[in-house]
Amino acid sequence: MTAPAIELRGISKAFGPVQANKDISLSVMPGTIHGIIGENGAGKSTLMSILYGFYKADSGVILINGKPTQIPDSQAAIRAGIGMVFQHFKLVENFTILENIVLGAEEGSLLRPSLAKARTELKRLSEEYELHVDPDALIEEIGVGMQQRVEILKALYRHADILILDEPTGVLTPAEADHLFRILANLRREGKTIILITHKLREIMDITETVSVMRRGQMTATVRTADTSPQELAELMVGRKVLLQVEKTAARPGAPVLEVENLRVVDEAGVERVKGVSFNVRAGEILGIAGVAGNGQSELLEVLGGMQHATGLLKVNGQSLDLSGLHSDGRTRRAHGVAHVPEDRQREGLIMEYSAWENAVFGYHHEQKYQKNMFLMDQAAIRADAEAKIERFDIRPPNANLSAKNFSGGNQQKIVVAREIERNPDLLLVGQPTRGVDIGAIEFIHKQIIALRDQGKAILLVSVELDEILSLSDRIAVMFDGRIMGERLPHETSPQELGLLMAGVVGKGEAA
Amino acid sequence: MDYLTLLQVLDSTLRMSTPLLLACLAGLFSERAGIFDIGLEGKMLVAAFLSGAVAFVSGSVWIGLLAGIGGSLAMSGIHGLASITFRGNQLISGVAINFLAAGLTVLAAQSWFAQGGRTPSLTGAARFNAIELPFATALKDVPVIGPLYYELISGHTILVYVALAVVPLSWWVLFRTRFGLRLRAVGENPAAVDTAGISVVRLRFTAVAICGVLTGIAGAYMATGLQAGFIKDMTAGRGYIALAALIFAKWRPWHALTACLLFGFLQALALRPDVIESTLHIKVQVQLLDALPYILTVIILAGFVGRAIPPRAGGEPYVKER
Amino acid sequence: MEKMPKWADVLLVPLISLLLAGVLSALVILAIGESPGKALWIMIDGAMGSKYNWGYTLYYATNFIFTGLAVAVAFHARMFNIGGEGQAMLGGLGVALACTYIPWPHWSLAILGAGVASAAFGALWAVIPAWLQAKRGSHIVITTIMFNFIASALLNYLLVEVLKPKGSMEPATGKFPEATHLPNFHDMLAPLGISFSRGAPANVSFIIALLACVFVWLLIWRSRLGYEMRAFGHSEPAARYAGINPTKMIVISMTISGALAGMMALNNVMGEAERLVLNATEGAGFIGIAVALMGRNHPLGVVLAAILFGALYQGGAILAQDTDIPVQLVLVIQALVILFTGALDNMVRMPVEKFFLARRLGAAKAKKEA
Questions:
Q1: In chain B, which residues have their Cβ closer than 8 Å to the Cβ of C146?
Q2: Own/partner long-range contacts of C171-174 (Cβ < 8 Å, ≥24 apart)
Q3: Which of A460, B303, C9, C33 has most Cβ atoms within 10 angstroms of its Cβ?
Q4: Distance to chain C for B230, nearest Cα, Å
Q5: Contact A406 C218 (CB under 8 A)
Q6: Which of A155, C129, C116 is nearest to B297 (CA)?
């Protein structure tokens, strides 16, 4: 019997008081694709970092092809035949593809021979695995799909037999993801072993032979993919039955609150991110915007929230708002009844070093009721305000003096949601409301959003989680490559149809 | 301005440019590796003092040079410790090094020589003396080329030629060797280097050490080539001008040469206000010439004339992410 | 979870850093063949041994409070203003122009006028780099360094060519009129029946410096502007999200910073020299960096650190007078303080954090077992 390509026995790792990995055992046979699935913070990345020599495990053994192997650093991991494709690519932007591939695996101290050899080898590899790239293109000039191919080529160039991919499809369109899976299938056929880390059940079901589920630092199950179902995996991931269906009544939409016409956004590098979108959101309805990350939804949300400039027409309650001038900022938007739960609470929605009470008015801190005089703020008023919110939204621990960074992800998000919803806005913009949030908080936040809708407010929801879009939205618009590919009603569409739209495949009768 | 005066000014330009060029290339290696260094001034000063002091005591300028490089390397070590090992603020570390150098050199000079913070004058083998290149005297009287060769090209100390040679050498190391590729990569994206199995720490320390060696030579040139001994604060802001030149050169070796020659030319002109007056028939304030490198750098930095983009990971300590 | 108690962060870490700087300074003194104990004693006595010495210590401290506050205010908006030196020089120009060309009837009016002029000139010298950072992306540190040199050249030109009285050989303005002379501590305390050294330069601008501290405290921790500045300093995307204008924050924080640095001239130019001389700032702009680092960017910390550095400068001067130790020893100590409290902060902090973490884990374990 052949030995497993990779075997872990009793791996544990703690960061201070946090046990990130606890007694983990795993065994992957050569020439197979093994999935590791789990929620954010389940310990998947820590485990892979141990395998790639970034961290040293506190205890446990790693066996490669049946031999116990020490992996103190990345160099050792590479020597052991392990290649890693990180979620955030590790490429030098202003180097060529060739230079990136050669970096760290040069032949001698002079560059020219190394590059020449790499060029030949690269040609061979690209043909063998259908990984075509232009060796002389600069990384900053190629798309993410291509960049990912460079990462895979980097690993293959270093003779990796075991390839680990961390959330590889997060930045890819469904079509690009399909191409990636074809490449992975090729690699498997050539005898490579692949570990695929993801939180997308569909990917696991599609391509893996075996799958392990991680939860709170532990490996809760390892099963053959053929013997399981998405429902079972989801249960194993979160530890109890998931309530994917949110209870809500039919929407009773009123007059349009938000009207957007021919909105265009050009980023700092001069790339057009949003290419003329038009839509509206009416009072008492939730418009969900679906799409793969990086197709312009984030920019759209930021423009509506006043964080970026754009061209086109934006109306709230029938009134035109400035999109590119002095009054195109978050403050003016808020003054017109727009509230905004941003996509990234830690970078945008909160000041992590500020206490909960300071954060509770962030963005509204300039309002008259929080001021003592022209210069000073009324801290007592702000505190009272914050404490009321903490109680109503059951934010824990209920301590307004604690810094935001000391709250859990779910409670941080509750601080943001409480702040924005309590304003009683006419229009609520919500980006990825439940990213990195525990199940309990997800339910709570979903209920709050629906309650606001039922009060007759307009809500624009942007999420990359299709399930979330399907269960919350009254209407769904799909974005691809900066455009809205089409609108659907949730009960008249399917994840498959939305998936096609997300990949830019347009049905008949619709313009691109 | 007659030909001979021009040659004299250019000759002086070359001498004034030399410490700038060495320090600028030193900064180039450090900053290309992602370590900002505003402590060039301090390192030069330490090297100037130690080279002057040791050259005087030993009577050999070469031993002095080594001592100067050693002192500069020690300062680089502090900078590396602070900004690489302990991930401190590189700018603050640089500020500290400049003060440390300004204080320690005077303290040590006073303690060793008791001459008011200077070293005794250097003579003979304790100094780098001008080298006459072959046939310089013989060709002196050939029209045009003769004086050019004799006045401008020949007759400098060895370190001037070393500085000029470091320019192509730096270019070759940075763009034609494995080390250069890795060095540039670590200044752009250290995570890429780290995951490729190369030690970010070792690479950055190497870059900082090269910076130390080059600033060491720059400082030694100040005390043993340009002048005959160390005097307090003798670098007089040259470290900062080198920094300005580095930005002006957009972190490229050949451009560094151009920038340093330009700034050196301004310094040479500041020494000869009479030349400007007789040529341009206007009085140019010396202070304007002093300020010009800084003003030009501000303009370049603001992107009014071309844009200077520093290495992307510059100034940021590298922390492995989970 | 906090890594260590607040008192350890605010007090213990800076004290350990200071101690390390002190030990190394002692070694330096030993190395040049002097006795650290004796040197320390002379410095303490020289800085605090008499009212006269105190008068000098507080005079220096006044300079450092202004420049320290300048660095601290900018730090809160994550701007590293290394240009305090140049801004203070320009502040001196403002004071000189205000005192020379406006016939003030009384010092109390003159100090207001000169205060506004110094603040405006200092602010001007900070606002250009700020604008270039905000609009053109030029690094504020490099630009402010360049502006220090440009300021120095500018003042050199003005003093040598323009402001120098006819017939004078010295590059300095003439003596300011009598009515602009500020009362020193002797003049201020005499009506209260307290006698203070007549010759010491500490003057009424010390009170202005303390008022500036109160202002900065209110600004940073109690005002809306401070709330926005700190928010911007912590996270620029968050600031944009909240509708805080980044350009405005950069420009305003640097304006206030530059104004504070410029106001230092009230003390050294108007209060002490009573005319503008070349290099009047004597590096005080840079000492502001050490003072702000040491004082953890808090006005109270800045006052304490400024007095400490004031004592260091005065003590160092006396030391140079009485022994063979050059005054540059002060530079070395200053460098070591910047090094340990600034650049090598983690070297001190990490072991302290580990200590407290281990202690807490130990306590948690004991609790579990019990």
A1: 240, 244, 294-295, 297-298, 301
A2: C171/C277, C171/C278, C172/C275, C172/C276, C172/C277, C172/C278, C173/C96, C173/C100, C173/C275, C173/C276, C173/C277, C174/C100, C174/C275
A3: A460
A4: 16
A5: no
A6: C129
**In angstroms, rounded to a whole number, what is the distance separating the alpha carbons of residues C219 and C227?**
8
CATH of region A6-238: 3.40.50.300
Give residue C41's domain range. 35-323
Chains that touch A (3 or more CB pairs under 8 A): B, C
Interface touch C326/B237, C-beta < 8 Å = no
Contact C147 B244 (CB under 8 A): no
Average pLDDT score, chain B: 91
Q: Give the minimum alpha-carbon distance from A271 to chain C in angstroms, rounded to a whole number.
A: 20
Domains: count for chain C? 1
Q: Which fold has domain A256-502?
A: Rossmann fold (3.40.50)
Phi-psi domain of C32 (left: phi exceeds 0; alpha: psi -120 through 50; beta: other):
alpha
* Yes or no, beta carbons of C343 and B114 under 8 Å apart: no
Answer whether C231 sits within 8 Å of A344, measured CB to CB: no
Please report the pLDDT score of residue A272 as a whole number.
86
CB contact residues (below 8 A), chain C span 21-60, against chain A: none
Q: For chain B, which residues make up each domain, given as ranges?
A: 3-129+136-301
Q: What letter represents residue A360's amino acid?
A: A
Question: What confidence score (pLDDT) does residue A237 get?
Answer: 73
B3-129+136-301, CATH topology level = ABC transporter involved in vitamin B12 uptake, BtuC (1.10.3470)
A210-215/A193-198 β-pairing: unpaired
Contact B194 A106 (CB under 8 A): no
pLDDT at A510: 47
Point out which residues pair with A479 in neighbouring strands: A484
Nearest-Cα distance to chain B for C40, in Å, is 16
Does residue C243 belong to the interface with chain B, where contact is any CB pair within 8 Å? no
Chain B contact for A54 (CB, 8 A cutoff):
yes
Question: What sign for the dihedral angle of Cα C70, C72, C76, C77?
Answer: positive
Flag if C347 and B86 touch (Cβ within 8 Å): yes
Structure tokens at A242: 């998931």
Number of neighbours of residue A130 by Cβ within 10 angstroms: 11
Nearest to A94 among B179, B188, B191 (CB): B188
pLDDT-derived band at A245 (thresholds 50, 70, 90) equals low
Are A406 and C1 an interchain contact pair (Cβ–Cβ within 8 Å)? yes
CA distance C66 to C88: 9
Which chain A residues touch C244 with a CB distance below 8 Å?
A: 330-331
pLDDT of A130 reads 82
Find out whether A50 and A21 touch, Cβ atoms under 8 Å: yes
d(CA A365, CA A371): 8
Average pLDDT over residues B292-302: 86
pLDDT score recorded for residue B322: 46
Helices (H), ranges, B81-199: 90-113, 136-139, 145-147, 158-176, 178-188, 190-195
CA distance C297 to B248: 33
A509 against A86, higher pLDDT:
A86
Q: Is B198 on the interface with A (CB under 8 A)?
A: yes
What residues of B are in contact with residue C32 (Cβ under 8 Å)? 107-108, 110-111
Residue A361: closest CA among chain C residues belongs to which residue?
A: C242
pTM: 0.88
Question: Is residue C363 in some structural domain?
Answer: no
Whether residue A147 lies within 8 A of chain B, CB to CB, comes out as: no
Residue of A nearest to B174 (CA): A111
Buried residues in C326-354 as b, exposed as e (16+ CB within 10 A): bbbbbbbbbbbbbbbbbbbbbbbbeebbe
- List, by residue range, all CATH 3.40.50.300 domains of chain A: 6-238, 256-502
Angstrom distance (rounded) from CA B155 to CA B321 = 55
